[in-house]
Automatic annotation (TrEMBL):
Converts 2,5-diamino-6-(ribosylamino)-4(3h)-pyrimidinone 5'-phosphate into 5-amino-6-(ribosylamino)-2,4(1h,3h)-pyrimidinedione 5'-phosphate. Binds 1 zinc ion. Coiled coil: none annotated. Its cofactor is Zn(2+). Transmembrane segments: none annotated. This is Riboflavin biosynthesis protein RibD. Pathway: Cofactor biosynthesis; riboflavin biosynthesis; 5-amino-6-(D-ribitylamino)uracil from GTP: step 2/4; Cofactor biosynthesis; riboflavin biosynthesis; 5-amino-6-(D-ribitylamino)uracil from GTP: step 3/4. In the C-terminal section; belongs to the HTP reductase family. In the N-terminal section; belongs to the cytidine and deoxycytidylate deaminase family. The gene is ribD. GO terms for molecular function: 5-amino-6-(5-phosphoribosylamino)uracil reductase activity; diaminohydroxyphosphoribosylaminopyrimidine deaminase activity. Pfam families: dCMP_cyt_deam_1, RibD_C.
Length: 340
């Protein structure tokens, strides 16, 4: 029971870096001596210290470490990445016990971190709040196990089932939902739109309603129809453009050539190569429908404005699933789906 309380704190700490560590996972760690937390840390950014190291560094009296338990939401790493292995550091210090939330399915770790610690004679408990720890890193696990990003479909529709009025940019959802959507943008690695959305909406796809990082923008534009002075190309974030004409890097924009045949499979493969851990599919209807038909999605978020009837425009995608839960954002209803 107490193990669970400390693991909960690890998860809370890890969540402070939501969206900021890609392509690395979110990890939190606490160090407990005599039923008291004496150190805490989380992984804040790829290339910087891992959670365990930050927790160790935060302890004032280092003499207590060898008689302490270290809790970590993800198995300590066993490989030399941008930083040395945390499992070795744990052994070097000689902690009394190590409590792990979930093992790391990254092919370079995969149980090896736990083994290193056990072989040194340190007691290890793993699988504490395992489901919660796996949910925390659903993007990371999907990326490594399925070799593709975690895919979130998202759109807003009117009461009569349209994405816009008369095929022009239309604000369907309310201001509160807009904040929620921008928070999502700040937490996910990337956001993708089709050619027609880029042309008719002139979107920026940035985070502006809250403070947070901008996602990587992804545009499907096979024949490069979207003018270079459109906001999707501005310097606020990197942009990847999947097209049939060229491979090139032009400042913050990377053009990636893609075959039209088996388009979706090629796209997914290239997103994996670009190490994109998660992507919000923003629309439009044509693009969303491709993903729905292929069953290529992990979560979906549909925003409904029941007070708005537009009469004509782009029809919302057909989507015959049951939401896990719904939430009211003032006069809008937000439905949350999971493809499990
Ligand atoms: N309410 C909401 O939440 C949202 C509303 N919208 C609205 O939706 C409208 C646009 O939707 P829609 O017309 O469906 O267009 P899309 O934005 O989905 O763009 C469709 C075009 O993208 C290219 N494309 C996308 N996927 C593929 C693929 N798998 N293979 C080849 N080409 C692909 C094609 O361009 P081409 O044929 O030129 O090669 C295709 O015609 C806009 O008016 C916008 O306002 C958009 C997003 C969200
Ligand atoms: N109209 C509509 C959405 N539209 C989506 O947001 C994009 C605009 O992003 P930006 O230019 O950054 O504000 C637009 O191109 C489309 O993908 N989203 C919603 O949550 N609710 C809405 O009512
Ligand atoms: Zn590590």
């Amino acid at each position: 029971m107490t193990d669970q309380i400390y693991m909960k704190r690890c998860i809370e700490l890890a969540r402070k870096a939501l969206g900021k560590t890609y392509p690395n996972p979110f990890v939190g760690s606490v160090i407990v001596y005599n039923d008291t937390i004496i150190g805490e840390g989380f992984h804040a950014k790829a290339g910087e210290n891992h959670a365990e190291i930050n927790a160790i560094n935060s302890v004032v009296n280092k003499d207590l470490l060898k008689d302490s338990t270290i809790y970590v939401s993800l198995e300590p790493c066993s490989h030399f990445g941008k930083t040395p292995p945390c499992a070795n550091k744990i052994v070097e210090i000689g902690f009394k016990k190590v409590v792990i939330g979930t093992l790391d399915s990254h092919k370079k770790v995969n149980g090896r971190g736990k083994e290193i610690v056990e072989e040194a004679g340190i007691e290890v408990i793993s699988g504490v709040l395992e489901n919660e720890c796996r949910e925390l890193n659903k993007r990371f696990f999907t990326f490594h196990q399925k070799k593709r990003p975690f895919i979130i479909l998202k759109w807003a529709q009117s009461n009569d089932g349209f994405l816009d009025k008369d095929f022009k940019r239309t604000q369907i959802s309310n201001g509160l939902v807009k904040q929620f959507v921008h928070k999502m943008r700040s937490e996910e690695h990337a956001i993708l739109v089709g050619t027609q959305t880029a042309l008719s909406d002139h979107p920026s796809l940035t985070t502006r309603e809250i403070s947070g990082r901008n996602p990587v923008r992804i545009l499907i534009d096979l024949r490069l129809k979207v003018p270079r002075d459109f906001k999707i190309y501005n310097d606020k974030a990197p942009t990847l453009v999947f097209n049939a004409e060229k491979n090139s890097i032009e400042e913050n924009v990377k053009f990636i050539k893609i075959e039209k045949e088996n388009f979706l499979q090629n796209l997914i493969q290239k997103l994996y190569e670009e190490q994109i851990q998660s992507v919000i599919i923003e629309g439009g209807s044509f693009t969303l429908t491709q993903f729905i038909k292929a069953g290529l999605w992990d979560e979906a978020i549909i925003i409904k404005n029941e007070d708005l009837n537009v009469g004509s425009g782009t029809k919302a995608p057909e989507f015959n699933f049951k939401p896990n839960r719904t939430e009211n954002f003032r006069d809008n209803i937000v439905e949350f789906y999971s493809n499990k």
